[in-house]
Predict the structure.
Amino acid sequence: MVSFSIDKQRGQVNVEWMSRPIDTNKKINKNQSLVLALTSMEQSPTFASRLKRKLLSGLILRGAYRSTIPDIKLPDQNGRLTAVSEFRGSYTLVDFWASWCGPCRKENPNLLANFNKYKEKGFSIYSISFDGDKEKWIKAIEKDGLAWTHVSDLKGWGGNILQEFNIASIPTNVLIDNEGKILVWNLTGDKLSERLSQIFDKK
């Protein structure tokens, strides 16, 4: 949550609390105005730039600009650096999870069912784990039968991805199209199945 006031003439921004991720779904217009104000500021450029990046990361990931998702490049289970941009040409669900996350493991059968149903039609999953233990991560992938791309920096909640994408909780995901453009945020259960059906069953 962010509480702020802007004085454009003085170039001042008063921010009371920034420790929680910004709810851009509800604050979209105010956040866009703040980004524009920060862009024109001359005072406190370091702080303004940091705040601007934080706001933009939240706005972009939630599809406010219908923009291309920032590229992600992390090692898979074998240490090979794999980028989400490698999946251009297919619709891809970028999935944030962890082996220790109960709700994530509960959702995995749904992901698997949809993956198996639509993988031949151009659907991929790129799972980013917030695990810190490689062995537990790999065991969870094998136990749940998750036969798609998995990556992790194995830094748990201390990795850069957490901050860059403003992740507050898991499971979290974002569906991108075959050009890497953001379509929708947080599809689980029947909502994921329905959206994929709209995309693929009409072809």
Observations:
- The two ends are 42 Å apart (CA to CA).
- Strands lie at 4-7, 12-15, 73-75, 81-83, 91-97, 123-129, 149-151, 172-176, 182-185.
